[in-house]
Each structure stands twice: as C-alpha cells, then as structure tokens.
Amino acid sequence: MFLLPPKRYSELNHIVSTLDSLIFIVLSLSQGELVRALGGVTAATSLLGVPLGHNSSFLQGPAFAPPRIREAIWCGSTNATTEEGKELNDPRVLTDVGDVPVQEIRDCGVDDDRLMDVISESVKLVMGENPLRPLVLGGDHSISFPVVRAVSEKLGGPVDILHLDAHPDIYDAFEGNKYSHASSFARIMEGGYARRLLQVGIRSISSEGREQGKKYGVEQFEMRNFSRDRHILENLKLGEGVKGVYISVDVDCLDPAFAPGVSHIEPGGLSFRDVLNILHNLQADVVAADVVEFNPQRDTVDGMTAMVAAKLVRELTAKISK
Known about the structure:
It is built from eleven helices and eight strands. It is an alpha/beta fold and 322 residues long. An eight-stranded parallel beta sheet has the order 2-1-3-8-7-4-5-6, sandwiched between helices. Strand 5 (194-202), helix 8 (207-216) and strand 6 (219-222) form a beta-alpha-beta unit.
C-alpha cells in the first residue's frame, strides 16, 4: 500500500508545478488510505516507509529497504512478540500506513527541497491521528532531517535525539549536497529541531565531523571509548524539558559481523545486544524513531541484516508504545 495510490501517479504529472499543489494531492489522496489502514483502531506506533536512496554518497541500495524490512517482520521464522512483551499483531500497538512514493514524485521532476517538504508533511499527517507516533523505515539517512523537522514542528518544540551510527552525519554539505545522508544532522541542528544530540557508536569521524560536533554542542560517544562509556550509555535519561525523544538507528552502528548488509562497512562497532541494552534501559518518552541505511543489495548472508532491521523495528515499537 502506498500513501499515494499508484493509479493516480499520472495525475501527479499535471499538478506538480508548485509545492502547494504537490502536498495537496499527496495529503488529500492519502487521508483515505490512512483511515483504511487504521481500520478503526488507532495504534501507538505507525510504520511509514521512505524509500529514498539518491542522497547516499556511495550506494543507493537503501531505497529498496522498506519492503524487505516488512517481509522480515512478518516472515514467520520468529513470532510477533517483543522482548518486553508487546505484541506487534495487536492493532493497538502497530499499524502500517505504507510508503511515501519517493521515486514516483522524483520522476515528476520534483527537486529535493520540495521532496523534503512532502516527507515532512506525510509525517505530520500520520501524527495527526492521535496518538500515532511514526516509526520510519529508510532509506538513506537523509530522511532523518525532514522526519525530525516534522516531529518537532508538530509537537511544537525541539526534541532530544539518540543517534546510533558509525558516522556522525554532520557535514555541512557533503560533496556539495546539503541533503546528503552525511549532512542530515547538520540540517537538524541548524534548524533548532533538537536540544540535545547524542551520537553513539561513532568510529569513522573526520576533523570536520568533530568540529561540527563542537559547533552544535553534540555529545559524541566514540567506539574507542565504549568500555569506559558503557555505564553511561546503558543508563540514559533523556527528554526532560523538551517535547520528547527521537531515536535514529543507522544499521551500520552495528559491527558488520552482526549486520553486513549496509553500504558503508565499518568494523569495530556495537554488538546487537549492546544496542538493545541502550534502547531497553533508556528512560524517555520516545515520540518517533527511524531505522535507516539497511542495504538489501549487500545483504548476502541469507537475509540476516533484514532480520536485524526487523528486530530493531520490533524493539523500537515496544519503546514507543509504552
């Protein structure tokens, strides 16, 4: 299911001359789809796919991730119960409102400025159904900017962000692209959409990444110091005095032994249990999250990374649904 029904793509070609008309057609056509998806029951967490990959600096495979993650969530090799006892097949816990039709919109000649606005408006639409909280399936990490912006604007103030990643993704404009997946958190911080940004799992960081971190007051926890920082990271308390906490998980935060299906393989990362310990012990009101940078085209070990991404979705759903 798509937020914009496929049979209506041809209509979009005739009305994309302005941003207002583009957003109008996406939102007006998707409202009915959203209501039907909810089935009369409002869940706490809503899956929304954003299959965007063209802002990747290396491989565009993450654009194909959302359907593979969904397939892994419901594949039958495991059950729908999270470690904390939430049942994903309970309609009060999770619903799926489909994908933003990123490629179809781009095929109509829409540039990234307008595309980012459409993504933000789609997230706001999902959040309009109280108490739905979006869990977004990427896509490359550039999607975090429009999603966080939407969450902050919809809630009326900044959030705290827990960002798990091998890279800080805070270049001002990587390779000249202000919307690069390596620049998403620069856009978030300069926009004032986050009060605190904690980056965990970092092990590939340039001098610009450190300088940008200092500029924006980012708390960067590098893997070389993980043994020292473990107690802090497994006992985090975030979100006091702001509108809630956003969690962004780049699958490459994990050591490639646990998740080889990523575009940027960076050895020396977190174990999967390290990540779960951080998430399970986090004291926070989690208002939204994303799972990004899974690349199915490199998931050569019998779909292992898809299952890793699916497990992350399960446990994040439990965290959001509390």
